[in-house]
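Field reference: sequence -> structure
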Amino acid sequence: MELLFLPFFLALVFGALGRLITPANAGTWLNGYNSMSAEEQTAFDLQSYLRLQRRFFDGLAWGLLLGGLLGALVHNGFIDLSEANTDRYRRWAAPVTLYWTLGGLTWFTWTYRDRLPSPRGLRFLAPGVLLGALILVSVLMWAGDRPSTLSVTQQGLRIEGMYGTDLPWEQIASVDTVAEIPPIRMKINGFADGYSAKGYFKTKSGAKVKLFVRNNEKPILRIQRRPGSGPSNQTCDLYYSTDAAHLYTRILQEQPRLSKGL
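Structure field:
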């Protein structure tokens, strides 16, 4: 749900940013312009720059607003997509929102770097930082959406990838499959983009869980760990969705006791 409202929040922020700076307060609030001498400020075409900046932020805001409206229509069933298309939408909604935002800001600061009211030596700093952030976000989204791999070993279970972990047999109380994960209230330390969820989350009942789940993967493997065998990060329930039915059968072949939770 938090991602559903992200485009609307960002649209509001950027729409406001485009109107935050005016000729009356630019001497105080417009970075770069406020450090110019009086002669440099007189020579700088402030009115043209502010119009350019407002048009850019308005375009950014309108794109986010339209994306948010599309997401709301899909989420509430007003646009009926097939399961495959819904899956594609969930996978690309968050990346497109972030790329539109960071990519747009990178393009603006690069394209108009010679018109920005900042020292020439710093005009490459903003597009460079934004491009670095865009690359970092891309890597995180790529790593977060990759399926985690659960393997069954003689010692226990091993989940590889982002937030991977080892689960010795003696720390596992029971294993079963469920149709859904418990309702989630908030993310504690993890990754979530509406398509994949990995890491630690808190449920609406207040319990901590660790997730390795992807949209539309059913059933979901639930691994209940023994309480009191370590910190809460090592004893909370764990949910894993990729090929869960096959893995459940494989785990019970290795450790039949786990179906009874003994």
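Note: The chain has eight helices and nine strands.
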